[in-house]
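Sanity check record (used in CI):
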Amino acid sequence: MKDVKKIVFYVLGVLLGACAFVEVTIAAMIYYKTYSSGIHEFIGYGSSGAAMIWLMTSGSLVVFCSALGIYGAINNNRSCLILCTVLTFTNYIIHVLGLSSAFISNLIIERDAVEELKFRRGQYVYHNTTDFIPFMDMLQRTFSCCGVKDVTEWLPEIPASCCAQQYLRNGNCTVARAFDRSCGSLAYVSWEEQSFTLYEAALASFVATLQLVFGGFTIAIIRSTSSYARAASN
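Expected output for Tetraspanin:
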């Protein structure tokens, strides 16, 4: 029974460490994609970037805890197992806070960023100032989007920046040839697709759950180790 318990513990430790390593790798890739794409310059992804750093840090600690737990179990080292237990449950809280921070950031972006785009588009249309023309044109060209909601917002005259260069007719853009992606969706859809993806969210939640199970098994191994030490002394 004791051997079976240890085998399950080893499998859990390896699985937890592997999943956490993948989580850290994905979070690092997401962080790089978000901040290298240039979208944060328009909308501001400071909070989402912080969430990715949070998950990378927490994930790295998970890898360490799983390795420490396996080492402690192999060597019947009670001190390592106790430290592993404390770190695992502490890191679980950190992990959950990281997940919460990411989801809250997503809600803030969805709520505030689109309103900011609407304001800037209004400045473009009604004031036609040099401050806002470059912003909308650069946003639409860079991210192949058109309008805050859709291209019809620009009617009757659609900006050339709403079309790819090869589709312009005499320098003019038409509804049929305009980008069909809205710049408003870019404010938060890119957060899900390029940043905190559904895969990362699911994996982070899975890792958090595994941490609880792993922590519980660590406590069981500590008790077994204590019993083994008492039996050996007798």
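The chain has seven helices and no strands. If this sentence no longer matches the regenerated tokens, the check is flagged for review.
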